[in-house]
Amino acid sequence: MRFSLLFTAIAAFASAFAADSTNPGTCSTIRVRREIRQLSAQERAAFFAAIWQLNEGPRPTIWDSYAQLHSEAGMLVHRSPRLFPFHRRLLLDLEERLDAILPGFALPYWDWTLDARDPASSMIFSPTRDWFGSQGTCVRDGGFANFGVWYTESGVQPHCLSRRFDRGAQMSPIFPPSAIANIIVNNQDYDLFRFMIETGPHNLLHRAMGGDMGTMVAPNDPIFFLHHAFVDRLWSEWQALPGRFARYDGSAGGQAVSLQDALPHYGDTVRSMLNITELCYRYAPSGTEVSRRLTANQEVFN
Ligand SMILES: [Cu+2]
């Protein structure tokens, strides 16, 4: 027990050090975040078990704390340029927690453009134990059946993880790869790009899934982190285009933002969140970036 606590502390220290952006080149490993369908059933089982573990013990659990933090940061980090850097930091926070349980673990993402036409039929929502289960006031199937959560938007209100698709058995169609490509290519301005992603596909997916995902305590649902990992990947793809890497503009609370701004709760600067390579991770392709490139080329040549 004592050893495992010590080990956890060392692992936490090591990953915090590796993630220090002022020391580029200190990554002991680069985490490769894969599309959820690229994980084996065993890998998903280990991931799910680690999440259940973070939700054990006296309330509020570590898992509960993400919903609380996200809800508290609320309007400071949504409808704001801070959307991308704040959620990038939040994902790293969970990834470090998971690393203590599963050393070297990289968060998976959900490329929902692969399920754009009929998201409710996505494999993600399969009822078997190695997927995330379907919908319900209480989700009763899949790997998070009867998953207990603590917060709602109005405070402490213990309940069971819930999802309520916006069209009954169906969910509204999400953006296909070509639409995402257009948003990435056509919006050079940071805050315009952020606005297009946030109010477009980002909000749409939250609303279409409903239940906990439709609220500010969305991190109650493990899918939240997969959704935001994909949103994070889209920001990194946007950043990879010429002249865009460190662009950050717009205003928050009536004030122009800057790269020196400290992120709510975490205190890290926005600048420290820019470079995912320095943050020691990258995204494995899921195939849709190919169509994004093709669309991008059409934009250039048409
Ligand atoms: Cu959010």
Automatic annotation (TrEMBL):
GO terms for molecular function: metal ion binding; oxidoreductase activity. Gene3D superfamilies: Di-copper center containing domain from catechol oxidase (1.10.1280.10). Residues 1-18 form the signal peptide. It comes from Tieghemiomyces parasiticus. Keywords: Copper, Metal-binding, Signal. It holds the Pfam family Tyrosinase. InterPro entries: Di-copper_centre_dom_sf, Tyrosinase/Hemocyanin, Tyrosinase_Cu-bd. This is Tyrosinase copper-binding domain-containing protein. Residues 221-232 form the Tyrosinase copper-binding domain. SUPFAM superfamilies: Di-copper centre-containing domain (SSF48056).
